[in-house]
Specification:
This protein has 249 residues and is of the alpha/beta class. The protein has 8 helices and 6 strands, in the order H-H-H-E-H-E-H-E-H-E-H-E-H-E.
Length: 249
């Protein structure tokens, strides 16, 4: 079974409502050529809050030079959102490359700084060869954006503790305007934070998916050991209970 970290214990009423709603979604009578334009019909409050969070944080980097790093891609929705936001807010900024790092096979390992009662090697995996499908999705989004002849995204498959180091060695020009950490666990979060520190600039945004979360302690421990909690101001938005961000000043 593919683990879903957003699964919560539901009441019987909530479970029945969810099943009923899924049935409505699967039997949607909207013509296929119009469905994509009406996804708001089926977007619940929680995923909508995440989309709004990404939108608000993206707006904070418009005047900051550099690329976007996503650490922990999984199904890739955030990357697709970033592509859309770039096309909407800065359509001719071909320098705003979007780079996603993921094993696409789940956690390579977990450590004692993680909640080992809930987390194990291989969790958060995706279906086989999913990154090939995701690449087609991202390419399709880019094809309908300005400057579509230039590829402005990259998927980096593998253990990010190794691939991020290799990427930055091969791209010493890299300035990171926005880094989103969604690894959930300690080791890759800490290693990649250390690797990226010298590539941040004043105004760079670093966001996290699970700070201060008892089920995912490793992310907070990694931040504490790399940047120090007393040295930064961790900010949040009122409609998103878990995700947060810091801005280098």
């Amino acid at each position: 079974m593919v683990m879903n970290k957003w699964q919560v214990v539901k009441s019987e009423k909530e479970s029945l409502d969810s099943e009923s709603f899924m049935s409505l979604y699967e039997s949607c009578p909207i013509p296929s050529d119009e469905k994509l334009s009406h996804l708001g019909l089926f977007t619940r409050r929680q995923p909508m809050s995440r989309i709004m969070f990404m939108w608000e944080v993206y707006k904070k980097i418009i005047d900051v030079h550099g690329v976007i790093f996503q650490f922990g891609v999984r199904w890739g929705q955030d990357l697709a959102l970033f592509e859309s936001f770039r096309g909407m807010l800065e359509p001719f900024n071909y320098n705003r490359k979007i780079v996603g790092f993921d094993t696409f096979s789940g956690f390579p390992s977990v450590s004692e700084n993680d909640n080992i009662s809930l987390t194990k090697q291989g969790d958060m995996s995706v279906t086989e060869d999913y990154e090939i499908y995701l690449d087609k999705i991202l390419r399709s989004h880019e094809n309908v954006s300005p400057i579509s002849h230039m590829k402005k995204y990259e998927l980096v498959k593998g253990d990010a503790t190794l691939t991020c180091k290799k990427y930055l060695r091969e791209h010493p020009e890299t300035i990171i305007s926005f880094a989103y950490f969604d690894f959930d666990i300690y080791e890759p979060t800490k290693v990649c934070l250390e690797l990226c520190k010298e590539h941040f600039t004043k105004g760079s945004v670093v966001a996290f998916d699970e700070l201060n979360h008892p089920d995912w302690p490793g992310e907070t421990v990694a931040l504490k050991e790399t940047l120090g909690l007393n040295n930064i101001r961790i900010q949040r938005l009122p409609f998103m209970p878990t995700a947060s961000f810091i801005i280098f000043e």
